[in-house]
Amino acid sequence: MDSSNDEALDIIITNVVATFRTRCHLNLRTIALEGTNVIYKPEVGKVLMKLRKPKITASIWSSGKIICTGATSEDDAKLGARRLARLLQKLGFKVRFSAFKVVNVLAVCSMPFAIHLIDFTKNNRPIASYEPELHPAATYRIKHIKATIQVFSTGSITVTGPNVQNVATAVEQVYPLLFECQKPRYK
Amino acid sequence: MSSRVCRTCGGADIDVDQARGSAVCTGCGSVLEDNIIVSEVQFVEGSGGVSSAVGQFVSADGPVKAPLLGSGFHTSVGKESRAQTLQGGKRQIQHLGSQLQLNQHCLDTAFNFFKMVVSKHLTRGRKTEHVIAACLYLVCRTEGTPHMLLDLSDLLQVNVYILGKTFLLLARELCINAPAIDPCLYIPRFAHMLEFGVKTHEVSMTALRLVQRMKRDWMHTGRRPSGLCGAALLVAARMHKFRRTVKDVISVVKVCQTTLRKRLTEFEDTPTSQLTIDEFMKVDLEQECDPPSFTAAQHKVKMQQLEHELARKLDEVEGEISCYKDEIETELEKSRPKLRGIYAAYAKEIDPEGVEVASSLSEPEAAPEGEEDELRAAADHLTQNFLCQVIQEEEGRGQKMGEGLEMEGAGPEREEAGLDMEGAGPEREEAGLDMEGARPEREEAGLDMEGARPEREEAGLDMEGAGPQRQAVPLADILGNLASLQQTFQTFSETGEKPDDEQSESGELDLMGIDDHEIEKYILNEREVEVKTELWMKQNEEYLKEQKEKEDRIQKEKEQGTYKEKPKKKKKKVPVAALTAGEAIERMLEKKKISSKINYDVLRDLNSRGTGSGGGSSPSRSNAEVDPPTAAAAAKRLNRRRRRKNSDANRDLAANASIMGKRVRLLLSSTSKKKKTALQAENPVTVAAAEVTSYPSPPPAGAVVEAEEEEEEEEVVVEEECVSALQLVGDYGCEEEEVF
């Protein structure tokens, strides 16, 4: 979904995080020793496995819970998760693919104008908060769709939300607010 | 009441004496009230002759009841703790605040914030230090004092981002809108620290103007205000002829050198930097700039655009070039001057090579774009660079020199310019077409070429210049490699899968779209597994050793019998305080979910009704049909008797709970039937033991009847319930059913 204005804004999804369960106990040592692209962290108790095809990194715990990060779309995340499950199946575990859920989606978007953060924060208290000492961006949290938007003064924004639809909605919601506080362009 | 009308004589004239605390009828003189409770303040003389008021401060937000010392001990414990927290907080605030030199008003405000925070239970799970620091910083922000979060973190030796997190949370929860930080606030403080002596004020003023100018130029959004201040102060100091190095400034301002330099550079880019000192003090430029990061991004975008354009134009010009190239070659052949000695030998070899290279080049030209284009573009850049230099040296055309960016835009023009120079001489023509391959003739082009040779060699693709052979070959190689790379890329992408997803049912793994072969690549074969195992074992030896030792230790202790299991942290059980038994049970059940099979709502309802008296379980009642009351009465009596014993009651409760678990379904289904009888959900808690044995009919009916008889027994049962609830909390764990 694009913005609600004349020009279409490109919302680029950069990261999708998803979790799923294999419903069976996994022996991390076996996975670590028999798989390529594997990092085993016995102190923490998990195995990091990186897949090349949808480029994702998966954290595998021995309880069978797996977190997949690094996908660029929800479908990609699902595909990656399934491949991972297939891989584990081949290693000999009785894997069942269940409870797949996309947990977090991170997207970036660039506005064609710069934004005056202090005005933006003033207009939208207390939903927006800006602490230049801590972070150069202003944070805007939309509670009812559970999305967080970080607004930078250059006009680029990053949006995180539980799914792609929410992210798009969030961008649409915040666009008019940002438009109000844009910096007039000189030069 | 009695003070209105006298009892004896009926007179309404009553005199109330506050001092004596007595009410006397003026008519008959009878004393109506003695020892009236007076609400006067009493004073007591303390040590040193100081008189102080007698009394205790009762907090408005504490528990509603007055603290009863002794009997209701658990209530006063809660209140004391709160008072203690506040006291401790106040102490810490004073301590920290004095280090920051905050005045008393600020400290009091901070303490108020702290009280609010405590009443909202936001101190739970956070270090008091952090909370105090956040409160203080909140005050600093609202008052506008020049204190930074960094100062606080310095004092506490805590990571500033952690403090920041706490601060943000508190500000959000307390709905306090802290005004945005203004760098102007910090200037006087930093100026003072930089020790400008008499002129501190002037320097501050100048720095302020600078900061305001920076604000107008949009340099201050998204940046730490201290960085801006540092830059402004540095410039101001220099303007007033104070020698303050970057190091001095950064030690005061607490940013790093790079940041300061960067700010200075950014400021330099603004038009204000061009003004002289006097001009700056007097004139204020109208124009405002875009923020520096914005301009940087724009710059990048422009570069990219130029590159695209160039690539495009390249395609157009390529065709032209090739035909020009041919022409020029022929010309050169004709007009080749005599070669220098060393290169004579090369000339013969290279010519065919050069031709080959040229031909091989023409192939890649036809080949698909992508990397090639970029390569070409890069090559072109370099050529242009070289060209520029040559042109400048030879013709003195300096306008196109050195500007790396414009070079791209002017690329095609320059090429033409190069081509134009064909007329000027064979050497220049070669220069223009250098990319096509090295020509020995170029050497002859002249000494100025040699001067440009070192640059040429540094040019990545080194096609022009000294050893034409050497340069020709690398180019061919590079282009050759490129072709093969392209091949590999294509094959790689072909092995890719089409993401063909379908909804997979839970548990079943949908194999569509998954290529098994590729996945097998991810699994090592046996030999590899061995090797990896070895490697891993070696790498993680330490960890494995530790694990082994731990195991051995545990083993030994077990044998010795001193094996101490890791003590499980027991949650402290706060004794439940409630007015009635019902409440007690409610609270207990809230805290401790005994079983997931119990419908707590029903339990609560039951309690709110008849206070835990005997009678049937609700499930039984659900099937309620009127049964012989006798049986009911008997059952009830049975219950009562049983309940007289506390321990039994305990077990009853527990048993009931467990029984409840089993009867859940019935319970749920019975909700509708429950509404039939007036007394709704009976206490399942007091399920008669009888039900255990003969479940459905008799007790259910009994329950119905019992319910009605319940009220009579309320008081009796209440006490028992009270005790049993507490006891249940105390010795929870006897969930086993005890069939009576």
UniProtKB/TrEMBL annotation, chain A:
<protein>
    <recommendedName>
        <fullName>TATA box-binding protein-like 1</fullName>
    </recommendedName>
</protein>
<dbReference type="GO" id="GO:0005737">
    <property type="term" value="C:cytoplasm"/>
</dbReference>
<comment type="similarity">
    <text>Belongs to the TBP family.</text>
</comment>
<dbReference type="Pfam" id="PF00352">
    <property type="entry name" value="TBP"/>
</dbReference>
<keyword id="KW-0238">DNA-binding</keyword>
<dbReference type="GO" id="GO:0009792">
    <property type="term" value="P:embryo development ending in birth or egg hatching"/>
</dbReference>
<keyword id="KW-0539">Nucleus</keyword>
<keyword id="KW-0805">Transcription regulation</keyword>
<dbReference type="GO" id="GO:0006352">
    <property type="term" value="P:DNA-templated transcription initiation"/>
</dbReference>
<dbReference type="GO" id="GO:0006366">
    <property type="term" value="P:transcription by RNA polymerase II"/>
</dbReference>
<dbReference type="GO" id="GO:0005634">
    <property type="term" value="C:nucleus"/>
</dbReference>
<keyword id="KW-0963">Cytoplasm</keyword>
<dbReference type="InterPro" id="IPR015445">
    <property type="entry name" value="TBP-like"/>
</dbReference>
<dbReference type="InterPro" id="IPR012295">
    <property type="entry name" value="TBP_dom_sf"/>
</dbReference>
<dbReference type="GO" id="GO:0003677">
    <property type="term" value="F:DNA binding"/>
</dbReference>
<keyword id="KW-0804">Transcription</keyword>
<dbReference type="InterPro" id="IPR000814">
    <property type="entry name" value="TBP"/>
</dbReference>
UniProtKB/TrEMBL annotation, chain B:
<dbReference type="InterPro" id="IPR011665">
    <property type="entry name" value="BRF1_TBP-bd_dom"/>
</dbReference>
<dbReference type="Pfam" id="PF08271">
    <property type="entry name" value="Zn_Ribbon_TF"/>
</dbReference>
<feature type="region of interest" description="Disordered">
    <location>
        <begin position="605"/>
        <end position="656"/>
    </location>
</feature>
<feature type="region of interest" description="Disordered">
    <location>
        <begin position="490"/>
        <end position="513"/>
    </location>
</feature>
<feature type="compositionally biased region" description="Acidic residues">
    <location>
        <begin position="499"/>
        <end position="508"/>
    </location>
</feature>
<keyword id="KW-0539">Nucleus</keyword>
<dbReference type="GO" id="GO:0097550">
    <property type="term" value="C:transcription preinitiation complex"/>
</dbReference>
<dbReference type="InterPro" id="IPR000812">
    <property type="entry name" value="TFIIB"/>
</dbReference>
<keyword id="KW-0863">Zinc-finger</keyword>
<dbReference type="GO" id="GO:0005634">
    <property type="term" value="C:nucleus"/>
</dbReference>
<keyword id="KW-0862">Zinc</keyword>
<keyword id="KW-0597">Phosphoprotein</keyword>
<dbReference type="GO" id="GO:0008270">
    <property type="term" value="F:zinc ion binding"/>
</dbReference>
<protein>
    <recommendedName>
        <fullName>Transcription factor IIIB 90 kDa subunit</fullName>
    </recommendedName>
</protein>
<comment type="subunit">
    <text>TFIIIB comprises at least the TATA-binding protein (TBP) and the B-related factor 1 (BRF1/TFIIIB90). Interacts with BDP1. Interacts with MAF1.</text>
</comment>
<keyword id="KW-0010">Activator</keyword>
<keyword id="KW-0677">Repeat</keyword>
<feature type="region of interest" description="Disordered">
    <location>
        <begin position="544"/>
        <end position="576"/>
    </location>
</feature>
<dbReference type="Pfam" id="PF07741">
    <property type="entry name" value="BRF1"/>
</dbReference>
<dbReference type="InterPro" id="IPR013150">
    <property type="entry name" value="TFIIB_cyclin"/>
</dbReference>
<keyword id="KW-0479">Metal-binding</keyword>
<feature type="domain" description="TFIIB-type">
    <location>
        <begin position="2"/>
        <end position="33"/>
    </location>
</feature>
